[in-house]
Amino acid sequence: MTLRWTAxxxxxxxxxxxxxxxxxxxxxxxxxxxEGGEGYKLELCRNQIYSLTDVLSYxxxxxxxSTEKYPKDESRATLKVAGFNVTCAVKATANGLDGIALRNxxxxxxxxxxxxxxxxxxxxxxxxxxxxxLIEYVRSYDPRGWSCMHIAEGPFTCRGATIxxxxxxxxxxxxxxxxxxxxxxxxxxxxxxxxxIVDATDGGIVIFGAPDSVIRDNxxxxxxxxxxxxxxxxxxxxxxxxxxxxxxxxxxxxxxxxFATDIGNDTMGMNNASAIIKIGIGIGPQVxxxxxxxxxxxxxxxxxxxxxxxxxxxxAMAISGARDDVIRDNSFVGxxxxxxxxxxxxxxxxxxxxxxxxxxxxPSLTTNLDISVPSPAxxxxxxxxxxxxxxxxRALGLTCFMPPASDSxxxxxxxxxVNAQPTKSGGAGLLIQPTLFGLCFTVAVxxxxxxxxxxx
Length: 456
Description:
By secondary structure, this protein is mainly beta. The chain is globular and about 60 Å long.
């Protein structure tokens, strides 16, 4: 018997990185997108920060930028804007970018305490001549530019974007013209749902026409800064004809102004940031601008229904310069106050805007609105003037109102802040029956009707 030795080649698999690490430069990341072609996925690593010296641009249809294994928490990869005078992290507005996706990442605009940059781009720029784009489970915050997220109309051919389950903010600062939006939507037939927007400063969600779009089930809240408008439907441009909001549906959103952070009296407290939302939902250009730049142009064709308001506002809803809209089944929940004083930019004389109230309509600039409100004979709400029905008055340039000082006992309790349990008795506020604008509801609402001070 002969014993023979045979050499065997044993191959062990080497560990292969499934994600692109942050050792890659911006140029290298861009090259991967360029070379990857249609359907390529740029998979980033968890818990890593990618410092971007320039905009990262999609190059082909169906591409995706995401974090490995799609986490939804702070382990998502962070794309941080770092280039000189660069305001955008990722961009997908060139032609031929149908079906691209941005998923499960964080976008840090790296604004810090600097004023807004001059470059006119948002943290995220999508849209253009494209369809079916997706942004989901993305955190976007501190943009250097005017918005945390912008979906552009292109040559009026963008359609079918989906913006969902994102956590957005803070965006911008309260300083004059240093504001920034949470979501800026101008793409038709789009779906904006399930997003949480905290501490935007211009508009929580701004709808630039975007015909046939649905904006639903979003939470808009302020904690540390004042927001000009929760959901803004005030821009008559860029869609044609001017003011085209045809078949836009805004429903089941919860818009939450500031709540008390310190105890005051039985029903109201103080807010250490003086945070309010000036206009919960604004409809029509005159609500926003007092300089007559859009003449008597009107926004038209939208339905606003089933939305809820809580916390501190100047106005929950305001309408001026609108026609052919349906407004129904919107409600106050929890505790609400309506507060603010005339600021230096408020118009005067016969153009002085109405002082803060829950619901304001300027009938001189509205046409053919279908508004569901309780009749005086059928609702206990008639005992609380203005709480259930739209009051008529001058709704002109309402962002001019200023919040009270932080030591003013003007903010309702709630929102998980101090003394958050609903209150049951008197004090500075007026406790009324719930107001579903059209039906009685089952929760109490503390409404403070006040205009603090005079003009600043």
